[in-house]
Amino acid sequence: MITLKSNREIDAMDKSGALLASIHVALRDFVKAGVSTHDIDKFVQNKIEAAGGSAPQIGYEGYKYATCTSVNDEICHGFPSKKVILKNGDLIKVDFCVDLDGALSDSCWSYIVGQGSDEVKRLYDVTKKALYVGIAQATVGNRIGDIGHAIQTYVEGEGFSVVREFIGHGIGPTIHEAPSVPHYGEAGQGVRLRKGMVITVEPMVNTGTWKAKVDSNGWTGRTEDGGLSCQFEHTFAITDEGPRILTLQPGEPKSLADFNY
């Protein structure tokens, strides 16, 4: 069942998203060579709890960490570890949720450690643009397929591929709700978007094949061919005025018309 949120509920999720976004901003300086993914996980958890929130990923379907920290060929759901030490040129995706007074938000951001290669930088730019290409389709009356089709068309036109196995979703009252939001598909197909829906768009874009495999831990997805993967994600509400991004980071334009995509 798809739940439609009231303005009051969306405003509460916006406050949760603002806290989440501020932590991603703080990670810009924290993520560097020599830092472990365990350090990143504890940094995020401490920031959430210091602000009066909680990390709802802890305990979700048995997951043990506040974040997913996925490096290079890991697509998503990478386990934080003291043994995974970032080095110059790595591409890390940090994905986490915030629960603030019962209101949820979810956002993943990618970080290039030090000086990335030209390939990493281009993958980063295309994936970030794909996020906004998709969000731009999230208007009342459009369909879920319009989002995925726009992302897939853009990404494949740039010579990259879009992951099929992991997708976006509705959010609230729990982390994962209906509807499912693939980042590929046919325009004009799927659930029609309605005012009050709150969903995530989170394209995972690979340098090689779109196909994924899952590690023996049952969680971590990685590229089948060992190629690099990048991801960006926002939580946003469907409104009569267009998509309202709830995890907008300081410095990002508030209107989609102002994004360079």
Structure description:
- With 261 residues, the chain is of the alpha+beta class.
- It has helices at residues 7-30, 37-50, 118-135, 144-157; strands spanning 67-71, 74-76, 91-100, 103-112, 161-162, 168-170, 177-181, 198-201, 204-206, 212-214, 221-223, 229-231, 234-239, 242-245.
- The protein has a single domain (7-258), classed as Creatine Amidinohydrolase.
- A 3-stranded antiparallel sheet has the order 1-3-4. A 3-stranded antiparallel sheet has the order 2-11-10, with no helix packed on it.
- Helix 1 packs across helix 2 and helix 3 runs antiparallel to helix 4.
- The model has no long low-confidence stretch (mean pLDDT 96).
What is the fold's blueprint, element by element?
Elements: H1 7-30, H2 37-50, E1 67-71, E2 74-76, E3 91-100, E4 103-112, H3 118-135, H4 144-157, E5 161-162, E6 168-170, E7 177-181, E8 198-201, E9 204-206, E10 212-214, E11 221-223, E12 229-231, E13 234-239, E14 242-245
Helix pairs in contact: 1-2, 3-4
